[in-house]
Amino acid sequence: MKTKNIKHNGNISLDDVIEIAKVMSPRSMAKDLSGTVKEILGACVSVGCTVDGKDPKDLQQKIADKGRRDSSGLKVVVFFV
């Protein structure tokens, strides 16, 4: 019988997330590494773990914000602040 509503807790480093994303990138449908990192962060949200003590959703938003295009139309790629 499966137990429901299990609350997971844990913390993983951002470096670990990036390393996992590098390993998983050949199987990912994401265009670039930042997309694969966002997929891994989504898995962190699903199991309830934090990344460097922060909510993975906040890190996903930072990646999305940093991937915006600048005024000349070039994509600005800055990974993390």
Automatic annotation (TrEMBL):
InterPro entries documented for this protein: Ribosomal_uL11 (IPR000911), Ribosomal_uL11_C (IPR020783), Ribosomal_uL11_C_sf (IPR036769)
Residues of the Large ribosomal subunit protein uL11 C-terminal domain: 5-51
Cellular component terms per the entry's GO annotation: cytosolic large ribosomal subunit
Gene3D superfamilies: Ribosomal protein L11, C-terminal domain (1.10.10.250)
Keywords linked to the UniProt accession: Ribonucleoprotein, Ribosomal protein
Superkingdom to which the source organism belongs: Eukaryota
GO biological process: translation
Molecular function (Gene Ontology), one example: structural constituent of ribosome
The keyword Ribonucleoprotein is assigned to this record: yes
Keyword Glycoprotein applies: no
Family: Belongs to the universal ribosomal protein uL11 family.
Name recorded for this polypeptide: 60S ribosomal protein L12
